[in-house]
Amino acid sequence: MSFQNKTAIVTGAGQGIGFEICRQLAAAGAHVILNDVDPTLAAQAADRLSGTGSCIAVAGDAGATECIRQMVDTATEKFGALDIVIANAGITLFGDFFEYTPGAFAKVLQVNLGGTFFLAQAAAKQMRQQPGGGALLFMSSVTGHQAHKNLAVYGMTKAALEMLAKNLVIELSQYKINVNAIAPGATLTERTLEDKDYQRIWAGLTPMGRPATVEDIAATALFLVSDKAKHITGQSIIVDGGWTCVSPSPF
User: Fold this and answer.
1) Mean pLDDT value across residues 172-199
2) What's the pTM value of the predicted model, to 2 decimals?
3) Could you give the residue numbers annotated as active site?
4) How far apart are CA 184 and CA 216, in angstroms?
């Protein structure tokens, strides 16, 4: 798949799945706007990709409208168009249902839902002016399909993102904008590998015998935002090695 001269925004991309998506897009010829809430991490990630392709770091909270506007403006001012948006940024705040606080609830919804919704809105306003439209991709989770202990709010937001992808088919198809979601299962990232037992536990729980890699998730993402997938819209693809088919709990 070639992304030559395409311009993409990827949020939450300082490391992990987001970074790997940026790496693959840049290697395939795309101009990449790489976002992370941590300015140092964003700058370091963009620097790591400097030898791979075109990448600009835009640090900031992807749940804030000012940051969203800056990302879209950077894409259009630097490269003249915005072809791809991958709303990967999200936060997980574990908490017992009976003790969950309004502050934690509001923060998860603001980043996971508000950030995705308003980034999609800002991007679509630009894409509908372009003859070729564009592609939107939301990052859901298997927790939007199967219950996980202490993740009621997180799982709720991920299920909502998949409904948003469906709903936007009505709003965006006439402008040649397709919109889909990916629901990763257990994935090996810098964060998850902080738990020394993570890989072993999820290898045992996953029918395919291993958790996903960031390359697994990125490969699916690139297909869904490529020209090969323009007739796929409103869909959610689970990438979990079969876990949701059997759903054994790690707890």
Assistant:
1) 96
2) 0.96
3) 140, 154, 158
4) 9
